[in-house]
UniProtKB/TrEMBL annotation:
Entry keyword 4Fe-4S: yes
Gene giving rise to this polypeptide: purF
Function: Catalyzes the formation of phosphoribosylamine from phosphoribosylpyrophosphate (PRPP) and glutamine.
Positions with a binding annotation for Mg(2+): 290, 352-353
Free-text comment on the cofactor: Binds 1 [4Fe-4S] cluster per subunit.
Residues holding [4Fe-4S] cluster: 243, 389, 440, 443
PANTHER family xref list: AMIDOPHOSPHORIBOSYLTRANSFERASE (PTHR11907)
Protein's UniProt name: Amidophosphoribosyltransferase
């Protein structure tokens, strides 16, 4: 998720490169919205950022203000109608919005939107879409219902009603907005350009566009950026509960969270893992790329040589082509392949970031043994994942989480390793240098910092009454100031 306010700059291209740096956060669809001061244009489609946009498309998106989004679905199916940024017309123009996180009171918000829809004159034509089935569209539609308000005023009305995890970037024709939930579960940072401002999900996106890091958007804060500069409002008191899994896996290693570069955190976790669970071995190898920093730390602390025993295919991204049965049986080899000369005859310590279902590790251990490893000792740089996430990570259901029903020894036997150990929750938290009471670690210990509704009011498809049909269209949406309407144009 990315936003930029920079008159005189090619803001669509800045958004493109910002999203490129954030591709790891969402690989299902991508979109960019741009305003030239009188009109908002939105272009989005299914696929990776580099698949959705080309030079001619970006050149057609001209303006001084832009937001972008790369989607990873947690509410609503992975279809075109749910791609972001979402757009709604307002009484004076339009609003485009991107969202990172997951709301937990989605059905409550849907009822509230229906109530507002029933109030005469509360909605301009087209403000309520019946195609989208995600929480993001509900927020956008709610903001559009306040016809007598500015977007800033509408946001101060709507944001306190949102529960769950949300980092938002949104825009009207003149202003860039950013907001973060009171717990600050998902990251959101502010950066400065020579002639403008940038907001992004991670500091790595600031680096790629040449923006200097200013600070994190505070939990419970709304930021507005326009020709008058930057102003800040608070819609809720801060109660920090940053996601611990961001430190483990989700964010890039070159990103900073809470003042710490994640590469350094992950190396320290590896050192802690070596102290807590040493083993006699000949070589420490990572599962690239997410296991690499922790493997470096494990090797440094243990004195066991570090080596590259697995080669990752750097060009394997999200694919919409289903593998043949033959390739499906080979499984993990599509992304990883062993270096036989390096690992044959060796006792290996294999460091990975997490185990969710166990399928990947099971295939990996088998592959390493076939390549000649005499022992395979698996070390995991996070505690066992025992609980699902409702705040923006699409984990398996609790029944599918291997650590939910099995002990560590049973998981070890299930994946075929000689030994298996996870870093302790205390060791992981200490490496972050954040207090445990300032972190959401629900997937590890089941303590959910934001109240959850009944189970039947949760879930990825809670807003879907029937499967969405549009799966391959791409579109350009425009709205002119004062028009109060939107036109969707489909490209062949």
């Amino acid at each position: 998720m990315f936003g930029v306010w920079a008159p005189g700059e090619e803001v669509a291209k800045l958004s493109y490169f910002g999203l490129y740096a954030l591709q790891h956060r969402g690989q299902e669809s991508a979109g960019i919205a741009v305003s030239n001061g009188s009109q908002i244009m939105v272009f989005k489609d299914m696929g990776l950022v580099s698949q959705v946009f080309d030079e001619s498309t970006l050149s057609s998106l001209r303006g001084h203000l832009s937001i972008g989004h790369a989607r990873y679905s947690t509410t609503g199916a992975s279809v075109w109608a749910n791609a972001q940024p979402t757009f709604r017309p307002t009484a004076t123009g339009g609003i485009a919005l991107g969202h990172n996180g997951n709301l937990t009171n989605t059905l409550e918000l849907q009822s509230w939107l229906t109530e507002r829809d029933a109030q005469e004159g509360s909605l301009v034509p087209g403000a309520l879409s019946h195609e989208a089935t995600n929480d993001t569209s509900l927020v956008t539609a709610l903001l559009a219902t306040y016809s007598g308000y500015t977007i800033e005023q509408a946001a101060m009305e709507v944001l306190p009603h949102l529960k769950g995890a949300f980092s938002l970037v949104f825009m009207d024709e003149e202003t860039l907005y950013a907001a973060r939930d009171p717990q600050g579960v998902r990251p959101l940072v502010l950066g400065r350009l020579e002639r403008g401002w940038v907001v992004a999900s991670e500091t790595a996106a600031l680096d790629i566009v040449g923006a200097s890091y200013v600070r994190e958007v505070a939990p419970g804060e709304l930021i507005c950026i326009d020709a008058d500069g930057l102003r800040s409002s608070r819609f809720a008191e801060a109660d920090p509960k940053g996601c611990l899994f961001e430190y483990v896996y989700l964010a890039r290693p070159d990103t900073m969270i809470n003042g710490r570069r994640l590469h350094s955190v992950r190396v320290e976790v590896g050192r802690t893992l070596a102290k807590e669970y040493p083993v006699e071995a000949d070589l420490v190898i990572p599962v690239p790329e997410s296991g690499t920093p922790a493997a470096i730390g494990y090797a440094e602390q243990s004195g066991i040589p570090y080596g590259q025993g697995l080669v990752k295919n750097s060009y394997v991204g999200r694919t919409f082509i289903q593998p043949s049965q033959t390739i499906r049986q080979l499984g993990i080899r599509l992304k990883l392949n062993p270096l036989r000369d390096v690992i044959a005859g060796k006792r290996l310590v294999v460091v990975d970031d997490s185990i969710v279902r166990g399928n990947t590790q099971r295939a990996l251990v088998r592959m390493l043994r076939e390549a000649g490893a005499t022992e395979v000792h698996v070390r995991i740089s996070s505690p066992p994942v025992k609980w699902p996430c409702f705040y923006g990570i699409d984990f398996a259901s609790r029944a599918e989480l291997i650590a939910n029903g099995l002990s560590v020894d049973e998981i070890c036997r299930s994946i075929g390793a000689d030994s298996l150990s996870y870093v302790s929750l205390e060791g992981l938290v200490e490496a972050t240098e954040s207090g445990i009471d300032q972190l959401c670690r629900a997937c590890f210990d089941g303590v959910y910092p934001i109240e959850l509704p009944l189970a039947e009011r949760l879930g990825k498809h809670v807003l879907e009454t029937e499967p969405a049909q549009r799966t391959g269209d791409d579109g350009l949406v425009t709205a002119s100031t004062g028009a109060g309407a939107a036109d969707a144009l489909a490209r062949p």
